TrEMBL record, chain B:
Species of origin: Adiantum capillus-veneris (Maidenhair fern)
Molecular function in Gene Ontology: ER retention sequence binding
Protein name in the entry: ER lumen protein-retaining receptor
Signal peptide annotation: 1-28
Top-level taxon in the UniProt lineage: Eukaryota
Keywords: Endoplasmic reticulum, ER-Golgi transport, Membrane, Protein transport, Receptor, Signal, Transmembrane, Transmembrane helix, Transport
Keyword Transmembrane: yes
Sequence similarity: Belongs to the ERD2 family.
Amino acid sequence: EVETDEKDEL
Amino acid sequence: MNIFRLAGDMSHLFSILLLLLKIHTIKSCAGVSLKTQELYALVFATRYLDIFTGYISLYNTLMKMFFLWSSFTIVWYMRYHNVVRRSYDKDQDTFRHYFLILPCFILALLVHEKFTFLEVLWTFSLYLEAVAILPQLVLLQRTRNVDNLTGHYVFFLGAYRSFYILNWIYRYFTEQNYYKWITWISGLVQTALYADFFYYYVKSWRNSERLQLPA
């Protein structure tokens, strides 16, 4: 499972 | 980080480098909307406040710093640089960008995920980014004959948005609990604004002509 970080996009 | 996200970020980076190249090397900002550039500076300033509150990765921090630095540098060049500011099409760049800011802010106050200072500003930056290209598109339409660098700049900005949509689709299917309605909807609106421009850009590229937008 890939961990999703909050607001890791630019 | 998936390939679509990386391609999107690189298109974004490349579009800004093209613009900086035009401004810094040719010392001209003809055809570039200062209104759009000011909106982008505001977008980055309100979105990337989180570089002070959290850390995601070195890549993330460096990119944020680059976007902040470049957007304010471009605005500085267009407003204050002795040579560059003379090439600014002030009379054509008449879009009232202030009228975009207030509605976006009110919308961010009403529609957001959490009612906190950073969250509302972050949401505001998403709404504002969605419409920030409008003054630039209006200016392109007015100038009709678009110079290559400006055309490529807008093309790569649009490519960045398109790659981000692919990135969201990819993440939706490969990650659990990945839903970002506000980001998605404002991203879709933003990308849709480029559709018309893309059509004429590809057409002029296929006919190897200079990009010309209809009046």
